[in-house]
């Protein structure tokens, strides 16, 4: 007579057999985990410099503790307040102007009926993404400079007055935002085009039978079909609203527009690296990370309340 195995023994053998089959996958994870532990988590010990005096010659545990003094100093600096204001302004412009741009381009490309023209257009649109911001900044200077820029030279030749694209605050902000859109819109469109291919074709057939126009199909079929992807990317965008691309602003700024071009990353770069105020820069980095975390959690919660799946 055979004795039945207990459930605990069965589970134990099942776990052993699972590890015997998949041990290679877990072994492959060892190197990435070690990498992140050494280069991402171990250096976080130095986050303590945000609460100590600015002294890079001593170990962080030997530097005198000053508490919240570095945070208080940051908020008393008017350049830092201007940097926070500018960061929020550019993040809002990127959200309301830049975020819908790849969605609209993906919808338009999806409606094209000439495959060759569609491929050429898509290729041309995402090629600028492979240009670094240094190159893009040089192109912007050659195109929009007051005296030597190609655009202003054409305007002058046609009898119009020049436009201060790079020397006026308002014009510089608009130039920066639309240059960023031009650089990234094609690359971000790839994500939405991939999501559109997953939409059930039967929905389009049903819409055709109901006599829906192409615009109606875009609004009632395509957009609802890619809504989960839009929600996820929106959550990630809102989570990074306190951040900004350092190279984007360093490549296009100049002294004439410093009041609007100074954002948090450029402020940290000047005060932390150039002025050697590492404790102050660390405090600002902690502040930025905490705000970004709360924005990410809040945007994910809002996405779920609006009917989306959220990011987790």
List keywords for this structure.
globular; mainly alpha; 312 residues; single chain
Give an overview in words.
The chain is mainly alpha-helical. The chain contains 15 helices and no strands. The protein has helices at 7-41, 69-76, 78-98, 100-110, 115-126, 133-144, 150-157, 169-196, 201-209, 214-225, 227-239, 246-252, 258-261, 264-274, 278-305. The protein is globular and about 75 Å long. The protein starts with 6 loop residues before the first helix and ends in a 7-residue tail after the last helix.
What is the 3D shape?
Answer: globular
Element order, helices and strands?
HHHHHHHHHHHHHHH
Per DSSP, the total helix count is 15
| N-C termini distance | 51 Å
The helix content, as a percent range, equals over 70%
Summarize the structure.
The chain has helices at 7-41, 69-76, 78-98, 100-110, 115-126, 133-144, 150-157, 169-196, 201-209, 214-225, 227-239, 246-252, 258-261, 264-274, 278-305.
Secondary structure topology:
Blueprint: H1 7-41, H2 69-76, H3 78-98, H4 100-110, H5 115-126, H6 133-144, H7 150-157, H8 169-196, H9 201-209, H10 214-225, H11 227-239, H12 246-252, H13 258-261, H14 264-274, H15 278-305
Helix pairs in contact: 2-15, 3-8, 4-8, 5-8, 6-12, 11-15, 14-15
